[in-house]
Amino acid sequence: MTVASILQSYSKKMTVVVFVAALVAVTGEVQAQTLATLLAATVENNPRLSAIRERQTSSQANVDAARGQRWPTLTVTGQEGRRHLDQRTAEETLTDRQVRLELNLDLWRSGQITAGIEKANASAAQTDAQLVQTSIDALKTVTTNWFSLQGAQQVIALQRSDIAERENFVEELNTRVERGLATVADLSAAQLAVIEQQTALQQTEEQRNQAVDTLENWTGLRPEQAIGTARLPKIPATLEAALTQAARHAAQVEIARAAVAQAEAEVAEREGALGPRLSLNAHHGYDYDQTIHENVLEERAVSREQSTGAMLELTVPLTDGGTGRAQVRASTHALAAARLHQRAAQEDTAAAVRHSWMKRAAAQQRITLLEQQLTAAKALQQSRKREFDQGLSDIQPLLDANQKRSSTEQDLIHARTTLRQSEVQLLADMGTLTPERLGLE
């Protein structure tokens, strides 16, 4: 395949792209979204967060159920029975009605009720922390891909500008070749540079589409363009301050801390099951009995009785075959495991914060170096252009300088995107990339 045929193929593709872009501009179908809009849509519509919220509501209901064990239970029962006897000498109808109101109250259960409430509260706190962790993961994914989309937009604009410049240069070389001021080899090299940049543009557009697909998956919106600026929580000035915030706010640590509290309550609940239990039972009843002898002039016998009583009941477990003690030992070892897991979570969080902090610092240093490199690359490009115009050098040094300037400018865009993404990761590791800190409900 010749260079001319390759150029013709890419020219057709670029014509289609320009036509689609013009059509979208007329119909207004391009969806441009700010980061704040996408984050709000994530919090409101993402099914992962909705599922955790349902679990959160369920955990709170379990807390209410555990607290309800402190209150007495009041029940009322009523029954009516009727029996007809057909004997040899007489017929008899018996009617029996009973109504009973009963109250039961656990006065002492060796700390089981308190432990049950603490266990339910710890479970609810763990669910709350899981909601925070899921929210952070969702917001981190959306924010990171929003920066990817924004960076891809900048690179695409740069590449399209470079393609236009290189195509103008090709036209200029055509004129020079016709006048004998340049060779066909120079023209072919310039045409190849256009094709290379078009290939790079296609790859960047694929990366942009991947970011758009991910954003649509998490937010329910398809932002074809990222507009506006990102307002993120402030990053601490020092690594020590970041580690301190992570120790207080990191969702992973909060989940492990709630698991320890839940395991402690489980131990207390198992130990309470081995202790005595004191309960109160009080009742008030009403009995109504009626007997009718139908063959004795409708003789009726009516009996009415009321009864009221109260009883204290003490239950002391003596032996259960060692089951209770075994359950206490099992819960004790589970508590030890939960404490070790909490320690590991704290160490992992600190390590993640340190890694993100160093990655952010490296990105900042890379940006500084690339800015200096870009200044030098632009100066080199201008120098090579003057040398080529004056006939002091051939076209290859100029093409190399153009490519160096373009690649350095693209690397600078990527480095700035990496810096913002590393800041997002740092905020997520610290536990501060939450809906509340982002101003979302």
UniProtKB/TrEMBL annotation:
<keyword id="KW-0175">Coiled coil</keyword>
<keyword id="KW-1134">Transmembrane beta strand</keyword>
<keyword id="KW-0813">Transport</keyword>
<dbReference type="GO" id="GO:0009279">
    <property type="term" value="C:cell outer membrane"/>
</dbReference>
<comment type="similarity">
    <text>Belongs to the outer membrane factor (OMF) (TC 1.B.17) family.</text>
</comment>
<feature type="signal peptide">
    <location>
        <begin position="1"/>
        <end position="32"/>
    </location>
</feature>
<keyword id="KW-0732">Signal</keyword>
<keyword id="KW-0812">Transmembrane</keyword>
<dbReference type="InterPro" id="IPR003423">
    <property type="entry name" value="OMP_efflux"/>
</dbReference>
<dbReference type="GO" id="GO:1990281">
    <property type="term" value="C:efflux pump complex"/>
</dbReference>
<dbReference type="InterPro" id="IPR051906">
    <property type="entry name" value="TolC-like"/>
</dbReference>
<protein>
    <recommendedName>
        <fullName>TolC family protein</fullName>
    </recommendedName>
</protein>
<dbReference type="Pfam" id="PF02321">
    <property type="entry name" value="OEP"/>
</dbReference>
<keyword id="KW-0998">Cell outer membrane</keyword>
<dbReference type="GO" id="GO:0015562">
    <property type="term" value="F:efflux transmembrane transporter activity"/>
</dbReference>
<feature type="coiled-coil region">
    <location>
        <begin position="187"/>
        <end position="221"/>
    </location>
</feature>
<keyword id="KW-0472">Membrane</keyword>
<dbReference type="GO" id="GO:0015288">
    <property type="term" value="F:porin activity"/>
</dbReference>
